[in-house]
């Protein structure tokens, strides 16, 4: 994929609010102005560093200008972005596509966020509720009429072992307690 196509793909991500601040954009423009071969002329650099225009407008104009200039200019923009905002460079949508060649592969960063968005308190509450329901179900289950030590020993057996194995173990323990 060419750098111009990548830049077109990343344009919305880069121009969305609070992705790039003014200082980073100014550093990128200055680097593009000073790099050899010179990507931006002095007049173009001043235009894209004009504080009177909004950051969103300046950045959009810069990206469109670089796309018109060609692939080499877009490549230098990506190099400047990597130098001045490495974390943002690594989070670019086109970089994630390059990192995951299999489109059916799960995006682990997104999956991790989706699994962890509730926090540990939510997990503990759900686990406690499930354990409580298992205990209530076991204690008042009409199939198991076992009393004494067997019930205390295998209190959490529905979670660990199956019903048939549990019944056999409980009958054995009941017989052992009678003897």
Automatic annotation (TrEMBL):
Domain CARD: 38-96
GO CC annotation: endoplasmic reticulum membrane; mitochondrial membrane
Residue ranges crossing the lipid bilayer per the database entry: 121-141
UniProt xrefs under InterPro entries: CARD (IPR001315), CARD19 (IPR043574), CARD_BinCARD (IPR042146), DEATH-like_dom_sf (IPR011029)
Alphabetical keyword list: Disulfide bond, Endoplasmic reticulum, Membrane, Mitochondrion, Transmembrane, Transmembrane helix
Compartments reported by the entry: Endoplasmic reticulum membrane; Mitochondrion membrane
Main location: endoplasmic reticulum
Pfam families with a match to the protein in the record: CARD (PF00619)
Keyword Disulfide bond part of the UniProt annotation: yes
Membrane topology: Single-pass membrane protein
Record GO biological process: regulation of apoptotic process
Subunit details: Associates with BCL10 by CARD-CARD interaction.
Protein name (Swiss-Prot/TrEMBL): Caspase recruitment domain-containing protein 19
Gene name per UniProt: Card19
């Amino acid at each position: 994929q060419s750098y111009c196509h990548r830049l077109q793909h990343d344009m919305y991500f880069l121009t969305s609010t609070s992705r790039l601040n003014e200082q980073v954009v100014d550093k990128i423009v200055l680097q593009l102005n000073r790099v050899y071969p010179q990507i931006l002329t002095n007049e173009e650099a001043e235009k894209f560093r004009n504080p009177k225009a909004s950051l969103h407008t300046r950045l959009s104009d810069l990206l469109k200008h670089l796309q018109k200039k060609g692939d080499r200019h877009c490549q230098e923009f990506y190099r400047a972005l990597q130098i001045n905002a490495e974390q943002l460079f690594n989070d670019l949508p086109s970089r994630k596509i390059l990192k995951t060649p299999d489109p059916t592969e799960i995006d682990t960063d997104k999956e991790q966020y989706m699994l962890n968005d509730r926090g540990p308190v939510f997990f503990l509450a759900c686990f406690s509720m499930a354990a409580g329901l298992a205990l209530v179900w076991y204690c008042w289950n009409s199939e198991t009429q076992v009393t004494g030590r067997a019930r205390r020993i295998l209190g959490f057996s529905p979670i660990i072992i199956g019903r048939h194995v549990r019944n056999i173990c409980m009958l054995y323990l009941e017989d052992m307690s009678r003897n």
